[in-house]
Amino acid sequence: MTISQSRPAFLTGIGAITPFANGWSPTFQAASAGPIRYAPWPADLEPPTANAALGLVKDYPKEKYFTDRQLRVMDKAMTLASVATGFAFEDAKIDEAYRTEAGDEIGTIFTSMRGEVPSIYRYCSPLIVSNGKSLPNPAHFPMIARNVACGQVALRFGLRGWSTMIASGELSTMHALGRAVSLVESGKAPMIVVAAYETLSKISLHHARVFWRKHGIYDQLFQDPQSNADALIEGACVFVIESEDSALRRGVTPYARFGRVTQGQLQQPTAPAFRDIARRHAAKNETDRIAASFLVSSRQNSPAENEQAMLAALTENASPLSEIRTRPIFGDGGSQTPMFQVACAAQMLKDGKLAAGLLAPGTAPADGVPPSGATVTQVGLLGGYGLLSLGRA
């Protein structure tokens, strides 16, 4: 599916809570300087690789938005998502008075991936035997309340617009971003808050490992030898995506303008098929007058040849493009990974320069030439794909 443009959608606010920083600006500065050191894998759990590590969030300003009594009945996912949303609103210059007045126009789309794995695994496990057949136990569905964090944010910040939760696997965030951009471009929603969040616990790590091994994807998940590539991290990243009119009313300077969002699923995920998708995406970018001057690859959780085919196709009819890689710095953030990719691309477009600490080995930015646009790529293990383009605001 390719989302076509009508009116432009802009990224105006970014909020982030990561294991190494609170707020997007400190996060980007730390990531650009790299490397980040994460905690060792728990000693009482078998590590997936010898270098596996965990990035745990330990300290963030929960009390800024909630009372002690409220915090006693909230889990970590709810507080991470809520505080990161508060950061994003501050970044976009959206205060309580504005939310009170325009709350009906502000929608929410939340996504999470890793928290779904234990639920999916338990539900798919044959726990009932009937007439000699092993069947799933309907009492185990659903095992988590997927929309709790989204609802909590809407209540805390007075958001009364369009709202949903997307939990469709490793490319959930690309679907969420595509839907948000489509809603803003079509005029159905002046502003959408998109949030991706993940939490880690020994229980979720155990069930995730069992699930990965059962489906034969364990080795592919942990094969990247780059620094921090084997680190699983928790945290939250939140975007404010809105129309130009909405941004102008507050006098906010956007990070970037959204271009094409292409996403889908290949039944036969081969390198030529991925190459063809990337070519079509690049051709549509020319229609939108977005010329990518750098690429932001996922380089994670996917067969390397498929994403390499995409990257090669995107550079066929362009000058040599710089490649940005975020996973060696951030680690594997689950649903946060595409958010970090887009956020880094948007920040560099706004700054007018590429961050040297995020450049892939062997690539270098053009001296003295500000980047004009970016294309973010995501390739899933089972044929899912996503491409998202950004232009200067």
The major sheet is characterized as: 12 strands, mixed
Shape: globular
Distinct helical segment count: 14
Task: Look at the structure and name the CATH superfamily of the largest domain.
Answer: Thiolase/Chalcone synthase
Helix content: 25-40%
Rounded radius of gyration (Å): 20 Å
**Total individual domains:** 2
List the helices and strands and how they pair.
Elements: E1 2-3, E2 9-18, E3 21-22, H1 24-33, E4 39-40, E5 53-55, H2 68-71, H3 76-91, H4 96-102, E6 106-111, H5 116-124, E7 128-130, E8 133-135, H6 148-157, E9 163-166, H7 172-185, E10 191-198, H8 202-214, H9 218-221, E11 231-233, E12 235-243, H10 244-250, E13 256-265, H11 271-287, E14 294-297, H12 304-314, E15 322-325, H13 327-330, H14 336-351, E16 373-379, E17 384-391
Parallel strand pairs: 5-11, 6-9, 6-10, 14-15, 14-16
Antiparallel strand pairs: 1-13, 2-3, 2-12, 2-13, 4-5, 7-8, 10-12, 13-17, 16-17
Account of the protein in words:
- With about 400 residues, the chain is an alpha/beta fold.
- The chain has helices at about 25-35, 70, 75-90, 95-100, 115-125, 150-155, 170-185, 200-215, 220, 245-250, 270-285, 305-315, 325-330, 335-350, and strands spanning about 1-5, 10-20, 20, 40, 55, 105-110, 130, 135, 165, 190-200, 230-235, 235-245, 255-265, 295, 320-325, 375-380, 385-390.
- The strands form 3 sheets. Strands 1, 2, 3, 6, 9, 10, 12, 13, 14, 15, 16 and 17 form a 12-stranded mixed sheet that branches.
- Helix 3 packs across helix 6 (about 150-155).
- The two termini are about 25 Å apart.
